[in-house]
Protein backbone atom coordinates (compact mmCIF):
# COMPACT_ATOMS: atom_id res chain seq x y z
CA UNK A 1 0.00 0.00 0.00
CA UNK A 2 2.67 2.51 1.01
CA UNK A 3 5.31 2.40 -1.66
CA UNK A 4 8.92 2.53 -0.49
CA UNK A 5 10.45 5.76 -1.65
CA UNK A 6 7.38 7.89 -1.04
CA UNK A 7 7.44 10.62 1.57
CA UNK A 8 4.12 9.33 2.89
CA UNK A 9 5.73 5.95 3.62
CA UNK A 10 8.51 7.61 5.60
CA UNK A 11 6.10 9.90 7.46
CA UNK A 12 3.60 7.24 8.48
CA UNK A 13 6.14 4.54 9.35
CA UNK A 14 8.76 6.80 10.97
CA UNK A 15 11.46 5.29 8.79
CA UNK A 16 14.67 7.00 7.72
CA UNK A 17 13.70 9.56 5.05
CA UNK A 18 16.84 8.88 3.02
CA UNK A 19 16.88 5.06 2.74
CA UNK A 20 13.59 4.04 4.44
CA UNK A 21 15.22 0.86 5.74
CA UNK A 22 14.91 1.38 9.49
CA UNK A 23 12.95 3.33 12.09
CA UNK A 24 14.26 6.68 13.26
CA UNK A 25 12.99 5.88 16.76
CA UNK A 26 14.51 3.70 19.46
CA UNK A 27 11.05 2.17 20.09
CA UNK A 28 8.72 1.94 17.08
CA UNK A 29 5.59 1.97 19.25
CA UNK A 30 4.47 5.56 19.96
CA UNK A 31 2.25 4.33 22.80
CA UNK A 32 5.31 3.66 24.95
CA UNK A 33 5.11 7.21 26.24
CA UNK A 34 8.43 7.23 28.10
CA UNK A 35 10.22 6.58 24.79
CA UNK A 36 8.01 8.54 22.38
CA UNK A 37 10.72 11.16 21.65
CA UNK A 38 13.80 8.94 21.87
CA UNK A 39 15.45 8.79 18.47
CA UNK A 40 18.49 7.00 17.15
CA UNK A 41 21.42 9.30 16.45
CA UNK A 42 22.03 8.00 12.92
CA UNK A 43 20.55 5.53 10.48
CA UNK A 44 22.58 2.32 10.72
CA UNK A 45 21.93 1.61 7.02
CA UNK A 46 22.76 4.90 5.28
CA UNK A 47 24.39 6.89 8.10
CA UNK A 48 21.98 9.85 7.94
CA UNK A 49 22.25 11.96 11.07
CA UNK A 50 18.67 12.62 12.15
CA UNK A 51 19.33 15.80 14.11
CA UNK A 52 20.73 17.69 11.14
CA UNK A 53 21.67 20.70 13.28
CA UNK A 54 21.37 21.56 16.98
CA UNK A 55 17.73 21.98 18.00
CA UNK A 56 16.63 20.80 14.55
CA UNK A 57 13.31 19.44 15.73
CA UNK A 58 12.16 22.73 17.29
CA UNK A 59 10.70 23.45 13.85
CA UNK A 60 8.54 20.35 14.24
CA UNK A 61 6.61 22.22 16.94
CA UNK A 62 5.03 24.36 14.21
CA UNK A 63 4.03 21.24 12.29
CA UNK A 64 2.69 19.75 15.53
CA UNK A 65 0.56 22.84 16.10
CA UNK A 66 -1.00 22.47 12.64
CA UNK A 67 -1.67 18.76 13.18
CA UNK A 68 -3.26 19.44 16.57
CA UNK A 69 -5.51 22.10 15.04
CA UNK A 70 -6.56 19.57 12.38
CA UNK A 71 -7.34 16.96 15.08
CA UNK A 72 -9.33 19.52 17.09
CA UNK A 73 -11.32 20.72 14.07
CA UNK A 74 -12.09 17.15 13.01
CA UNK A 75 -13.18 16.26 16.57
CA UNK A 76 -15.41 19.33 16.70
CA UNK A 77 -17.04 18.62 13.34
CA UNK A 78 -17.69 15.00 14.25
CA UNK A 79 -18.96 15.76 17.75
CA UNK A 80 -21.09 18.80 16.91
CA UNK A 81 -22.40 18.13 13.43
CA UNK A 82 -22.55 14.33 13.25
CA UNK A 83 -23.19 13.39 16.88
CA UNK A 84 -25.17 16.51 17.81
CA UNK A 85 -23.37 17.15 21.09
CA UNK A 86 -23.61 20.54 22.80
CA UNK A 87 -20.58 22.87 23.08
CA UNK A 88 -19.39 21.64 26.48
CA UNK A 89 -19.55 18.00 25.38
CA UNK A 90 -17.80 18.92 22.10
CA UNK A 91 -15.07 20.69 24.07
CA UNK A 92 -14.54 17.56 26.19
CA UNK A 93 -14.32 15.46 23.01
CA UNK A 94 -11.79 17.91 21.48
CA UNK A 95 -9.55 17.89 24.57
CA UNK A 96 -9.79 14.09 24.82
CA UNK A 97 -8.87 13.60 21.17
CA UNK A 98 -5.89 15.97 21.38
CA UNK A 99 -4.60 14.12 24.45
CA UNK A 100 -5.15 10.68 22.89
CA UNK A 101 -3.53 11.74 19.60
CA UNK A 102 -0.51 13.35 21.32
CA UNK A 103 2.07 10.55 20.83
CA UNK A 104 1.09 10.12 17.18
CA UNK A 105 1.05 13.86 16.46
CA UNK A 106 4.48 14.37 18.03
CA UNK A 107 6.03 11.65 15.90
CA UNK A 108 4.20 12.62 12.71
CA UNK A 109 5.32 16.23 13.19
CA UNK A 110 8.97 15.15 13.46
CA UNK A 111 8.57 12.81 10.50
CA UNK A 112 6.99 15.51 8.35
CA UNK A 113 9.60 18.08 9.37
CA UNK A 114 12.64 15.93 8.55
CA UNK A 115 11.01 14.84 5.27
CA UNK A 116 10.86 18.51 4.24
CA UNK A 117 14.66 18.59 4.19
CA UNK A 118 15.72 15.03 3.27
CA UNK A 119 14.67 13.15 0.15
CA UNK A 120 14.65 9.44 -0.57
CA UNK A 121 17.75 8.07 -2.25
CA UNK A 122 17.41 4.45 -3.49
CA UNK A 123 21.21 4.16 -3.65
CA UNK A 124 21.80 5.38 -0.10
CA UNK A 125 24.23 3.24 1.84
CA UNK A 126 26.83 3.84 4.50
CA UNK A 127 30.09 4.95 2.97
Determine the mean pLDDT: 92
Got a strand count?
0
Radius of gyration: 17 Å
Instruction: Name the beta content range.
Output: under 5%
The succession of helices and strands, N to C, reads HHH
Low-confidence stretches: none
Oligomer: single chain
Number of helices: 3
The dominant shape is elongated
Q: Describe the main β-sheet briefly.
A: none
Straight-line distance between termini: 31 Å
Percent of residues in helical segments?
A: 40-55%
What structural class do the secondary elements suggest?
Answer: mainly alpha
Tell me what you see in this structure:
The protein has 127 residues and is mostly helical. Helix content is 48%, strand content 0%. It starts with 6 loop residues before the first helix and ends in a 10-residue tail after the last helix.
Describe the structure concisely for a colleague.
This protein is about 50% helix and about 0% strand.
Amino acid sequence: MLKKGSKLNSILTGSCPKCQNESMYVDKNPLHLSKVLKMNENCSHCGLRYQIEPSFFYGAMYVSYGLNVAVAVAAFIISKLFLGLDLVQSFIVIVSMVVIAFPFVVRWARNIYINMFVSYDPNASKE
